[in-house]
Amino acid sequence: MENKSKKEIMFNRMKNKKKEVKLVRRIVLVIALFIILVGAIGGYIGYNYVKGALSPMDPDSTEKVTVEIPIGSGIDSISSTLEKNGIIKDARIFKYYVKFNNQSDFQAGTYDLSKDMTLDEIIESLKTGKIYREPLFSLTIPEGLTLEQIGEVIEKKTGNSSKEFFELVTSDEFVERMMAKYPALLTEEIKGENVRYALEGYLYPSTYPFFEEKPTNEEIAEMLLAQTDRTMAPYYELLQAEEKSVHWLLTFASLLEEEATAQTDRQKISSVFYNRLEIDMPLQTDPTVLYALGSHKERVLYEDLEYENPYNTYTNKGLPPGPIANAGKSSIEAALDPEDTEYFYFLADKEGKNYFSVTYEEHLQKIDEHLK
């Protein structure tokens, strides 16, 4: 009987263990199914959320929302601004969408966007700088102007004091702030010993829209600087590879801007300067003499050519210490991509047509033919 009771006890124990194992298996199975179910539900919810965030905020909406994208805004701040204004559902998803599609170069400005726009439409608007709202006025800064001349243009259009504008853009405090904001554009070279004005040649010539009646001089100056930074951005890597600087490029381009009388001549004039620099020959370009003199004369006299000043390329070899005016894109590109010529001389006749020569004798002959 005792042995039988022991067997029964062992049998019962085994039976209970089997039940426990079955129960544990069932519990594990239920938990696993629950986790899978929760994961599937979570994945489904997440998928629908992302899908919704990639879709227009309201496909049936025709309402326009005015959105301001400040100068210097990055993708983080742009995404947050769009979400706050109800143009997109989720800033993080918009940011990832932009990065996954390798989109960049968004333009600052004031946009009238609508909630029925797709992400691609929003991106295209921000990239092209397409402004839906009509500006109150536009300000055109022509090529080939100095800081003082730019101030005069601004005064005529806005009524802002040209003197105060000039004082602002030549002040150490403003220059330092802009250097911190645009480090790739504004390097220590602009503060070189013989540089007349740090920001000379750095205010880009273009037409700028304004949506307020009275922009400040600082807002205008920074808008022009920001455009220069955007214009120069594609060249930063190339300049680094060629061991040249932005300051070198804008200085070179400013000479082309002042000398060229036709679009097609810029690359030829650029080749003349390259050829002269290669043999350590003075550039001898009259606009640098006028800049050195600080005056706007119709003709440069022989006595002017001997004026002692770091900017005078008759008395100094190489490029001047800095730009002598603001240069447009065609001059910038010509400075980077000159024609392959053997010219060392050129002159412009009274109609502005340029003539190029290889030797000084040819040059003198063309002076007799076209200038006397």
UniProtKB/TrEMBL annotation:
The record marks 259 as: Important for catalytic activity. It is found in: Cell membrane. The chain crosses the membrane at residues 23-47. InterPro entries: MLTG-like. Pfam families: YceG. Gene3D superfamilies: Endolytic murein transglycosylase (3.30.1490.480). Signal peptide: none annotated. Its EC number is 4.2.2.29. It is a single-pass membrane protein. It is an enzyme of class 4 (lyase). Keywords: Cell membrane, Cell wall biogenesis/degradation, Lyase, Membrane, Transmembrane, Transmembrane helix. It catalyses: a peptidoglycan chain = a peptidoglycan chain with N-acetyl-1,6-anhydromuramyl-[peptide] at the reducing end + a peptidoglycan chain with N-acetylglucosamine at the non-reducing end. Belongs to the transglycosylase MltG family. PANTHER family: ENDOLYTIC MUREIN TRANSGLYCOSYLASE. NCBIfam families: endolytic transglycosylase MltG. Functions as a peptidoglycan terminase that cleaves nascent peptidoglycan strands endolytically to terminate their elongation. This is Endolytic murein transglycosylase. It comes from Psychrobacillus faecigallinarum.
